Amino acid sequence: MPLLQRYILGELTRTFLVLLTSATLLFVFAGVFSQAKERGLGPWQILQILPYVAPSLLPFTIPSSLLLTVCVVYGRMAGDREIIAAKAAGVNVISIMWPSFFLGAVLSVMALVITDQIIPWSVRNIERTVTLAMEDIFLDLLRARNQVEFREQGISITVMDVKDRTLIMPVFRFSPNGKSQTVIQAQEARLRFDLEKRQVILNLSQGYIDVPGQHRGWFEAEERAFPMPDQNLRAKARDLQVQEIQAAIRDTSEAVQTAERRQAVEAALLLSTGRFDALAASPFRQHPEKIKAEKTHFYSLRTELHNRFAMASNCFFFVLFGSPFSIWMARKQFLTSFMFCFAPILLVYYPLSLMSQNLSRTGMADPTYTVWVGNLVLLLAALFALRKVTQN
Predict the structure, then answer these.
(1) Is 97 among the domain residues?
(2) Measuring CA to CA, which of 162, 209, 296, 388 is 20 to 30 A from 377?
(3) 232-276, pLDDT tens digit by residue?
(4) Which neighbouring-strand residues pair with 188?
(5) For residue 239, what is the DSSP state?
(6) Cβ neighbours for 50, distance < 8 A, ≥ 6 positions apart
(7) What is the span of the domain harbouring residue 184?
């Protein structure tokens, strides 16, 4: 690597690391304390999740820090007439900018790896920490009140006492979606939160169970699983890896096809037998709602899959536009160059990206091409700025 390019790459790297560290630390502390306030976490839980919050912020702080970096370095070089001196010495202006293009390409790959591998891992660790904290909070509530109730899930637990993590004389009532109430009484029970399956596992000993319409009687040992309170049974698309998203897309597509075939067969049977009133019954009306929910999840998964690559590559497109624009502005005041450079990105790029994502999530557009619209606009703006810089 020539001396001039090594000098520019070193300036870019040092400035970028300082800006990235400052921005990430600022947002990490803000994000951690907001999560702690929302979920009621204590100081020990805050310290535990602190290292896992930073990776989830890097896809947002890396592009903005990199854009500010090229504005600082190339704006100063242009303002000090170093670019003119280099061109007078026969150095092509493109070769002056290629260290920033190289850094942008490397950071785009890193952003993709962070988004695909590190963020799902950090999210799982945050959930595990929060789940353990929720288990402690849950047991503390039982110690203090002897009763905990989750109305949305139809769960109610009453105990005589709590020793360590063992419930003494618990009475467990479960009535999901307004169905008949299942009642379990036991001498002792232990709670265990299964994060992978998002369930609360109850290990009961020496008790009585009453399941309406099924069975009732005494038992020596019983294990029951119930949905975790305030948890979505379906993981969010942004918390999955690319392979998991592709597998989920295949499963969701098969579920949609199965539901559509089942709806068509049931409709044909009802029409052939003249049971027109059954077409308006609530069980049959549930099919379109299920199909709609599965399709919405399918569109969300596809959008996340393609958007993950588009958002990771914006590091490269940011420097592709920011480097020539900063030289074109030729200002020593890097904040002025940054604002003039960031304003069109803020007013054009991000609204276009959000609009394309929304259209893709609703199934109105194909995410294979739509999510790249913002990057395409940046590419056109970068070509215009490069033309201006190379001509003058």
Answers:
(1) yes
(2) 296
(3) 445 677 778 888 888 888 888 888 888 778 777 777 777 777 766
(4) 168, 205
(5) G
(6) 28, 32
(7) 153-227
